[in-house]
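Section 5: illustrative case.
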């Protein structure tokens, strides 16, 4: 199961079509792959996505999900393909590799640590990036076990400890 989101303004037009064509090629060539794509409500996303991907039986286009459902989907998926900056951070916390559908990312630390790879917005590069992660278990393992550059997940414990210390005075 691959989770996909693509909705950024710079990906409207040809880039969103490229993304869709690459996704369609992936599911046509990898019979065990399913894609879930919560589609942004913007018509610049809805129209091309539904036109290119809407009829494929292993591509599930959904309406945008509430946060808890989306987090559960992130936990269930094999990896994430997205143009979202926030998902680059959240995927690292869940040990999910993320492939970034952009030319550059504002989260370079994710790429440096190995939790994310920028694969661009050209169909062949997207296809290659996804297929490589599907086929190369060593690469998948490296990305899934890379150090989270955005924290260790223990901030709330440290905050509670500080608050207890502060209020016990």
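Designed sequence:
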């Amino acid at each position: 199961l691959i989770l996909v989101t693509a909705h950024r303004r710079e990906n409207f037009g040809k880039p969103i079509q490229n993304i869709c064509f690459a996704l369609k090629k992936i599911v046509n060539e990898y019979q065990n792959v399913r894609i879930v794509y919560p589609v942004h409500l913007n018509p610049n996303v809805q129209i091309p996505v539904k036109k290119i991907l809407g009829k494929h039986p292993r591509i599930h286009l959904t309406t945008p999900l509430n946060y808890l459902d989306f987090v559960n989907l992130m936990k269930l998926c094999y990896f994430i393909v997205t143009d979202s900056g926030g998902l680059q951070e959240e995927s690292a916390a869940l040990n999910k590799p993320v492939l970034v559908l952009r030319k550059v990312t504002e989260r370079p630390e994710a790429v440096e640590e190995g939790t994310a790879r920028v694969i661009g917005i050209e169909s062949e590069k997207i296809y290659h990036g996804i297929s490589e992660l599907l086929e190369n278990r060593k690469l998948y393992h490296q990305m899934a076990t890379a150090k989270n550059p955005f924290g260790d997940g223990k901030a709330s414990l440290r905050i509670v400890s500080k608050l207890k210390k502060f209020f016990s005075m």
